[in-house]
Amino acid sequence: MRKICFAEFGGPEVLRLVEAEEPHAGPGQIRVAVRAAGVNPADWRIREGQVLGAHPVELPAGLGLDAAGVVDEVGEGVEGVEIGDRVFGEGADTYAEFAVLSAWARMPAGLAFDEAAGYPSVVETALRVIGEVGVRPGQTLLVSGASGGVGSAVLQIARERGIAVIGTAGAANLDYLRGLGALATTYGEGWVERVRRLGRVDAALDLAGSGVVRELVGLTGDARKVVSIADLGAPQWGVRFSGVAGSVQDALAEAVDLIARGRLHIPVEKSYPLTEAAAAHADSRAGHTRGRRVIVPGDLGSDPAEA
Questions:
Q1: Cα distance between the two ends of the chain
Q2: Is the dihedral of CA 289, 206, 156, 117 positive or negative?
Q3: pLDDT digits (tens, 9 = 90+) for 202-222
Q4: Which of 68, 76, 197, 271 has the CA that lies 20 to 30 A from 149?
Q5: What residues form the membrane-spanning segments (predicted)?
Q6: d(C-alpha 64, C-alpha 95), whole Å
């Protein structure tokens, strides 16, 4: 089996495509033949050695939390899923040909593997931070860095719950945000005043870590109404940093319902073969993503060193 791993912290160049032993499903787990793996900012933060309490790392380490694929092993005590089922979920080391999942759900009809791989962690994070920031129906939520995967999910879930949304993004992505039901403006110089002109802000989320936490506190008037998933320095402003996942299984159930009802769709901006995992990380870190980036292990290329 081939998988992506790294033996030292650093830039994308530390990623290697290597031969590894196949993992196997333990009690309460399943194994899938991976058809696509989601690329999350947590992945490159872990690779860089950033302190993320929810994801302790022992080197050498694999990467990837999210995957969609076909079940080919079922662990002891697992019920309701069979070999051959198409599932998506969260596990470990999903940048690989095979991965073990600890939370999963059957893929909704009509959902492609690359699309499905983009949902698990993203929807869990979106549901978690909407809950943590305490925004209610009839209020307005400001989302900084709104065009990526989590932002796309937050905007749609918030709108489904009767919450108005304002999103900031690059100029090229404003129409995308408006298509998701948000009022939208660009970040950059003068962005605070542009947001104020769009209306009152009751709560705010920092999804990009672009150094705007202090301004978000000013816009809401209350540090308790701001949550960041990307700025480890947020607590110095009295703002909660949210980095520990809640129930992925519950999030998957809600994702299935929303997708089936046509209330949630996160586009795939680009797919990469395993040999281009480093490029996927570089692109993800650069931002400006519209939706999700995924790795597709089936497109392997020929030279493991290329990764």
A1: 15
A2: positive
A3: 999 999 888 999 999 999 999
A4: 197
A5: none
A6: 5
